[in-house]
């Protein structure tokens, strides 16, 4: 066991596993915990510090598992609690921490409370208000006797009533349940939800769907002050366990200042910084987001997080317009101070699958709003044989992904897999890469150049012409081939060790 540093999360590289799509050990077409266990050597070799498992709990999978029917058990499709315990033990044995997803805003409609008609644990009203579901359509569904229940997501995901003490007690207990099983942290789903404005006031007049307002202004169902009381209840529980147990918030709020309120010694440890994920592939927009994020980190006294892809957004190889750009953006991300969250398959350079037949799409957002997140959830190609190591996977794997499979990339020194491995190896060798400060170097408008700790310079060219780096030194890593004269081509990033400095000085 290499574990032991309580602040491990501050500069950790955390790899998100979407269990349904990661690796299938029992051959039923759905990934499982044993599949993750079988790939721990792959993950150790990749060089990640932790894995975050998206939900694997008992669930009808109406929203890919973010509709939890039993928070204390594993869905049979994903395995058993014994498989989970074995996974944690093996991961820890390899020095990999395990973070699990916690879904407190809503449960599944198959949850025993909902099934037993315990309406006071949910948000039932005689009349709906004007709130809309994030997945499209009204946020209310009527039941047989005429009452309506609130679901900010799919109708199969009724919102819990956090004014009810039993709901609060239940989640404190769920935290302890998983902490007792050895988890190192939680990713808190919809961490800005749970508490709704008193009286459930209407949102009122607006142009376009409410979902589009979330980034700009406060709506009465998100980011209410009362949510912070919940985190102040949870933090002492996390702190009562040894070994640095952490929580990271998925909170979509209107400003860095609002986000900062979730973080601190009496609330959560981190929040996802989605602004980096939303930035355009241009030196100027990256720089603006990085400056803003670092200022925000300063504000809360905790390093920020960086994300380029996850299970909710199109993969960055597609979003940024190609693999070269994705690799370049990744090299930038992995050299920034703070922790980095990777999404399974990005290390293979997978694109989003854009041409899934509609009848195979499973995302409830597709059915309600016509937008689908299925394209980033296609199973991971492992082998170079037809099928990529899967039998009848829950979403079809494009035939050409045999060439992108882990097996096909294993021995290719220029593969994306080996780029990620090399970057993570260097990140470990330069302990200051995940921490420390950042100095901006003079550069043309479409070039981003930063010095990370004395000596390590990152240059990203988002322009249209090759640029000669203004730094003398050795190129430690490049996201793509350089010009014969050492210039950096468009859509390429490099890590340069300045002459006269050494990586081990840090
Ligand atoms: C979060 C998850 C997303 C899910 C939603 C409802 O945003 O990341 O996948 O659909 O919450 O739980």
UniProtKB/TrEMBL annotation:
Keyword Iron applies: no
Gene Ontology molecular function: any one: oligo-1,6-glucosidase activity
Protein name: Oligo-1,6-glucosidase
Keywords in alphabetical order: Glycosidase, Hydrolase
Keyword RNA-binding attributed: no
The family this protein is said to belong to: Belongs to the glycosyl hydrolase 13 family.
EC top class named in words: hydrolase
Residues of the Glycosyl hydrolase family 13 catalytic domain: 16-377
Cited SUPFAM superfamilies: (Trans)glycosidases (SSF51445)
Region (Disordered) location: 482-506
Gene for this chain: malL2
Lineage top rank: taxon: Bacteria
EC number(s) reported in the record: 3.2.1.10
């Amino acid at each position: 066991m290499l574990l032991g540093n309580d602040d491990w999360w501050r500069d950790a590289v955390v790899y998100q596993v979407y269990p349904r799509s990661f690796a299938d050990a029992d051959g039923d077409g759905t990934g499982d915990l044993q599949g993750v266990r079988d790939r721990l050597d792959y993950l150790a070799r990749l060089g990640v510090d932790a894995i975050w498992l998206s939900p694997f709990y008992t669930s009808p999978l109406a929203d890919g598992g973010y509709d939890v029917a039993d928070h204390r058990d594993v869905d049979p499709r994903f395995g058993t609690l014994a498989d989970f315990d074995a996974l944690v033990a093996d991961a820890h044995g390899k020095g990999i921490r395990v973070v699990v997803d916690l879904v407190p805003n809503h449960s599944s409609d198959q949850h025993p409370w909902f099934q037993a008609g315990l309406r006071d644990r949910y948000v039932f009203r005689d009349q709906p208000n004007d709130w809309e579901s994030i997945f499209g359509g009204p946020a209310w569904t009527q039941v047989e006797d005429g009452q309506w229940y609130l679901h900010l997501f799919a109708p199969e995901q009724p919102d819990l009533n956090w004014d009810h003490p039993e709901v609060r007690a239940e989640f404190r207990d769920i935290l302890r349940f998983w902490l007792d099983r050895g988890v190192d942290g939680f990713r808190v789903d919809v961490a800005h939800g749970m508490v709704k404005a008193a009286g459930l006031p209407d949102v009122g007049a607006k142009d376009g769907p409410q979902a589009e307002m979330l980034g700009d202004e406060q709506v009465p169902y998100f980011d209410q002050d009362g949510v912070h009381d919940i985190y102040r209840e949870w933090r002492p529980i996390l702190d009562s366990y040894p070994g640095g147990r952490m929580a990271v918030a998925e909170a979509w709020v209107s400003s860095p200042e609002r986000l900062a309120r979730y973080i601190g010694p009496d609330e959560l440890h981190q929040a996802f910084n989605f602004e980096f994920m939303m930035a355009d592939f241009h030196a100027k927009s990256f720089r603006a987001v990085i400056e803003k994020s670092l200022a925000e980190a300063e504000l809360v006294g905790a390093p920020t997080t960086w994300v380029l892809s996850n299970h909710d957004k199109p993969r960055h190889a597609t979003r940024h317009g190609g693999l070269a750009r994705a690799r370049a953006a990744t090299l930038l991300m992995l050299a920034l101070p703070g922790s980095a969250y990777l999404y399974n398959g990005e290390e293979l350079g997978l694109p989003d699958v854009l041409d899934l037949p509609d009848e195979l799409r499973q995302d409830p957002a597709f059915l309600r709003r016509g937008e689908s997140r299925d394209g980033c959830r296609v199973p991971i190609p492992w082998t170079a044989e037809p099928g990529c190591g899967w039998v009848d996977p829950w979403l079809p794997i494009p035939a050409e992904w045999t060439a992108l499979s882990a097996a096909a990339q294993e021995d290719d020194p220029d593969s994306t897999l080996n780029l990620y491995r090399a970057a993570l190896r260097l990140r470990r060798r330069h302990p200051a890469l995940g921490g420390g400060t950042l100095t901006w170097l003079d550069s043309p408008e479409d070039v981003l150049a930063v010095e990370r700790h004395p000596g390590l310079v990152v240059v990203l060219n988002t322009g249209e012409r090759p640029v000669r780096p203004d730094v003398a030194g050795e190129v430690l890593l490049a996201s793509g081939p350089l010009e014969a004269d050492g210039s950096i081509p468009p859509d390429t990033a490099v890590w340069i060790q300045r002459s006269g400095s050494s990586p081990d000085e840090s």
